[in-house]
Design brief:
Blueprint lengths: L19 E5 L15 H14 L3 E4 L3 E2 L11 E5 L6 H13 L3 E6 L9 H8 L5 H4 L3 E2 L22 E3 L5 E3 L14 H16 L4 E4 L18 H4 L20 H13 L6 E4 L6 H5 L9 E2 L2 H5 L4 H18 L4 E3 L8 H4 L3 H17 L3 E5 L20 H6 L42 H4 L6 H14 L11 E2 L6 E8 L2 E8 L5 E3 L4 E5 L4 E3 L2 E4 L3 E7 L1
Parallel strand pairs: 1-2, 1-13, 2-5, 5-9, 9-10, 10-11, 12-13
Antiparallel strand pairs: 3-4, 6-8, 7-8, 14-15, 15-16, 16-21, 17-20, 18-21, 19-20
Helix pairs in contact: 1-2, 5-7, 12-15
Bound molecules: 1-deoxynojirimycin and magnesium ion (MG).
């Protein structure tokens, strides 16, 4: 048996240590005005649903003014709402209602790059090479006799070179789309601007920030080559993400930025926090982003990437717990988001995928720390794999053939026909079409139906909030001896014990001695004094 140390006690300022955060992909959540695009007013109208689901906070993907080349991760004005999503007044009304309902709001901050439509970039384009306007971005002269070759061999995460040449001959860096020029974070104006943007949203009452590409803002001095490229080896540089070091990611100096941001967050009351979307070579390097003087959380993408096996889950859970314990931060679990294939589909799709997804959710929600849910996972939505190519909007699709649109299809709320209540009554528009099979997956189709995925999530979240052994102050994970392929661990507080068992083996498992079942992802069968846990299922047992 091994145990990790208990997570620290929760006070209100520490809400994020054990919170369940629901990620809203704004464009696809709820459309209040019938234009086929989700909006802030749509979120506002659905807040009671989220309250009833039992989450503590929402993370909203970017809703700022944007040409929407990369779904809003190309921001043209960091202090305003894009008209397609509403207005600042709508934002204020939405956050006001959320707070009244006890829901906190986390917004997305995109500091690595702006949109090419941002006034700073249009000014840089209008100005000459070497001008102060260009200093805020990463402009460089090319290689080759006429400067006709890019300044180095860096590749865009979305495919192709990370450099685009201007008519005047200079190149600019974009680690993502050419419409997302990278900022020069060694420039004091860039730093001052983002401190101010943080304050702008903190003043409006936001409870936290999700930091986009948190590992990317500082590039190695001298912009050195990676040394290989897709052209030379067939291996894409991005394949090193989370596995190796690249001169444009996870540079030590990036931590100075977070050490400057933390006092800003701490100067506001109520526990304002930040979560890093960071990719680092090792869990140790990832843990450097979190702690009392940097960010509060960093997603454990190793957990998301773990394959359906007891060893794989146990390994990533142990290493994430160990690292976060050292830095005194909570572990941050996530199974799906707007960039990754939905976990129902990752785990095998169809019935098997859904069973495993439901089981993995019970596993995640029993672990210490914070858990992030992605909209629609509470309905068991699969990835939509057969979207017509011409409807796909992910900028990566054209260059790599990979598209993230299949996890961004609008949420089915009710009714018989697509888009299933996504918009107001009678509206037939949705920016991506929902599959004809989603009628049975809608909120209305699942609400109140015993055994539905929605009711499973509601039950698990209810227990997570009420059970002493699942609170932030409860003990850490204690692994229990089991037969091969069965994962079991307990957490405890003051004699109350909750045991989570996941059957990853190929046969039903007899579970005995952990107390009464509290919730199960599939039906349990009584067997003697214990229960049979079916294949690809998980259950929580409690003893008080
Ligand atoms: C990560 C975001 O989650 C993703 O959607 C986006 O394309 C990139 N960062 C670039 O901002
Ligand atoms: Mg709308």
């Amino acid at each position: 048996m091994t145990a990790s140390s208990p997570t620290p006690l929760t006070s209100d300022d520490d809400w994020w240590r054990s919170a369940v955060v629901y990620q809203v992909y704004v464009r696809s959540f709820a459309d209040s005005d019938g234009d086929g695009t989700g909006d802030l007013q749509g979120i506002r109208e659905r807040l009671p649903y989220l309250r009833e689901l039992g989450v503590d906070a929402l993370w909203l993907t970017p809703f700022y003014t944007s040409p929407m080349i990369d779904g809003g991760y190309d921001v043209a004005d960091y202090r305003d709402v894009d008209p397609m999503f509403g207005t600042l007044t709508d934002f204020d009304a939405m956050i006001g209602d959320a707070h009244t309902l006890g829901l906190r709001i986390i917004v997305d901050l995109v500091p690595n790059h702006t949109s090419s439509a941002h006034p700073w970039f249009t000014a840089a384009l209008a100005a000459a090479p070497g001008s102060p306007e260009r200093e805020r971005y990463l402009f460089a002269d090319g290689k080759g006799e006429q400067g006709e070759l890019p300044p180095n061999d860096w590749e865009s995460i979305f495919g192709g070179p990370a450099w685009t040449r201007m008519p005047d001959g200079q190149w600019y860096l974009h680690l993502f789309d050419p419409a997302q020029p990278d900022l020069n974070w060694r420039h004091p104006e860039v730093r001052a601007e983002f401190s101010d943007v943080l304050r702008f949203w903190l003043d409006r009452g936001v409870d936290g920030f999700r930091i986009d590409v948190a590992h990317g803002m500082i590039k190695a001095e001298g912009l050195p080559d990676v040394g290989f490229s897709t052209m030379t080896t067939g291996q894409r540089q991005v394949e090193l993400l989370g596995k190796g070091r690249l001169p444009y990611f996870d540079q030590d100096e990036v931590h100075d930025i977070y050490r400057a941001w933390r006092p800003i967050l701490d100067s506001y009351p109520g526990g304002r926090m930040a979560v890093a979307e960071a990719w680092a070579e090792t869990p140790q390097r990832l843990a450097r982003y979190i702690g009392p003087d940097e960010l509060h959380q960093a997603f454990s993408f190793d957990f998301l990437d773990a394959t359906w096996s007891a060893d794989s889950f146990r390994k990533v859970i142990d290493s994430a717990l160990a690292e976060s314990t050292i830095v005194g931060a909570p572990t941050t679990w996530v199974l799906s988001n707007h960039d990754k294939q939905r976990h129902v589909t990752r785990y095998g799709d169809g019935e098997v995928g859904l069973r495993r997804a439901r089981a993995a959710t019970l596993l995640m929600l029993a672990l210490p720390g914070c858990a992030y849910l992605y909209q629609g996972e509470e309905l068991g939505l699969p990835e939509v794999l057969d979207l017509p190519d011409e409807l796909r909007q992910d900028p990566a699709f054209l260059r790599t053939g990979e598209s993230r649109d299949g996890c961004r299809v609008p949420i089915p709320w009710s009714g018989e026909l697509a888009p299933y209540g996504f918009g107001p009554a009678g509206s037939e528009l949705s920016w991506l079409p929902a599959p004809a099979t989603w009628q049975t997956l809608s909120v209305a189709a699942q609400a109140g139906v015993p055994g539905s995925t929605l009711e499973l999530y509601r039950a698990a979240l209810r227990i997570r909030h009420a059970h002493p052994a699942l609170t932030a102050g409860a003990g850490g994970v204690v692994w229990l001896e089991t037969e091969p392929g069965v994962l079991a661990f307990s957490r405890a507080l003051d004699g109350a014990v909750l045991t989570c068992v996941v059957n990853v083996s190929g046969a039903p498992a007899l579970i005995d001695g952990y107390g009464q079942p509290a919730v199960a992802s599939e039906e349990l069968t009584v067997r003697g004094s214990g229960h049979l846990l079916p294949v690809d299922a998980a259950a929580w047992f409690e003893r008080r």
